Amino acid sequence: MNSEQLTNDESEPEDSPAFAHLVERLDSLWFEERREAAAELPNLVGRRCGGYTIRNVIGRGSFGVVYRASDDQLQRYVALKSPRPEVLLDPERFQRFHSEAATAARLDHPAIVPGYEANLSGPTPYIVSALCTGPDLCRWLADREVPATAEDAARLVADLAGAVHYAHGKGILHRDLKPSNILLEPLASYNDGKQLAEFQPKLTDFGLAKIAEAGLQDTRSSLLVGTPLYMAPEQLSSDAKRVSAATDVYALGAVLYELLTLRPPFEGSSYVEVLDKLHSGSPRPLRAERPEVSVDLETICAKCLEKDPANRYATAAELAEDLSRFLAGKPIHAHPVNWRDRFSRWVRQPERIRNAGVTTVWFQALSSVWMWLIAGASIAISSIEIDGVRTAIDSLIATLSFNTPLFVLGWLVMRGNRWAFVPAALLSCAELVVAVHAATDQGLLFAHAYPTLTSKLASYTMLIMGSALQFIMYALAVPAWLRERRAGVVTAISPSIGK
């Protein structure tokens, strides 16, 4: 199974315009990759690039070709990466090549492929790095019939987490961690390559790396940064500020999950299906896929794969520490998710705000209809004309005082206007208080329409229940509103994709 190739099913629903645009971009990228992979490449084998003689091709993709080359001066073999011709004609894609060279020059870690030299001018730009003689992790997984042992998987991801934390310390986010970007360098204990313990992982391909302090423009190449099977949910957002160190932690969790199950957390036959699951689904529990995996390791993996970055490990170093504690048989810092955690995370989801707005819109519309039906019935059957007029006046007062303002505020809240949340919540509380008071006080609104207090209470029951539900929805949405207020999020909240 090659878990990094997806086909697009054009029959999938595309309900959200933003989501449809995202899928369209993915489709164009995928077809572009296939077309470029089949394109004729210049044959550089046997040619010299600077002080290097190119020997043979060891890998190729949609972006460039990697050659095994000999360093004539130091008498060693190296990996030489040269961009495809079409990349040289595309300023944005060539900038990615330049970014990879600049990033490699800043990193020096045992679990990161070291860069030696870069020449970005001339007819054949290239990047020279250490030559890794082993396969990449994607190829290693594809050749496997059984998953890696829990200890080997934990050890490899701990090594990678250390490298990622080192890069983060340099202000660099990788943003495209995946098995094909993890090379396996054979150790001295190498036997047949069937065990991960025989390799030292080496992280490579920082072409999509982002300098943490720098901004990210919404260009063609940065519309979607990452590989869908391993990308974090926040990478679907157009807000680049949501991408953080926790984004790379998510990808490390996805790699750990695949090492232990031979499948990524989310699978699908199309980009639409994968992105829908990424947005609104949850990975199948690790122990449901592989029961013999320990609860501690499942807990570590689940914490990495949390949809909310705030619920993941804050740093890759924390992930590495928990994996090391697991390997040493010590208690880990993470704990399994309980019902209190689930409830706390549920109330902090942005959907709670939208749900409160939807509840208000529907309740105010229905209660307005109910009040005016009472007024109409009172006018029709009243033996004293003045009673019908009083009922109509009471309905008008209630509508102008609560129904209309709350309907407008609820609509704004539903549409994502953050400022409307507080007045809507306060007015919904006031409406509940007034409804309860009016139901128990014979002298308030609609008193003449009910001969007894019991009949009035019976009629007001539905109004009180609706007001209470509306107020509860706003109370539940307060944590989500506070969280968005702290984050400065002012964009509209979209419903779930594909629903």
From TrEMBL:
The protein, known as: non-specific serine/threonine protein kinase
Organism of origin: Aeoliella mucimassa
Gene: pknB_4
Molecular function terms from GO: ATP binding; protein serine/threonine kinase activity
InterPro entries xrefs: Kinase-like_dom_sf, NEK_Ser/Thr_kinase, Prot_kinase_dom, Protein_kinase_ATP_BS, Ser/Thr_kinase_AS
Homology family: Belongs to the protein kinase superfamily. NEK Ser/Thr protein kinase family. NIMA subfamily.
Enzyme Commission identifier(s): 2.7.11.1
Domain Protein kinase: 52-327
Top-level EC class as recorded in UniProt: transferase
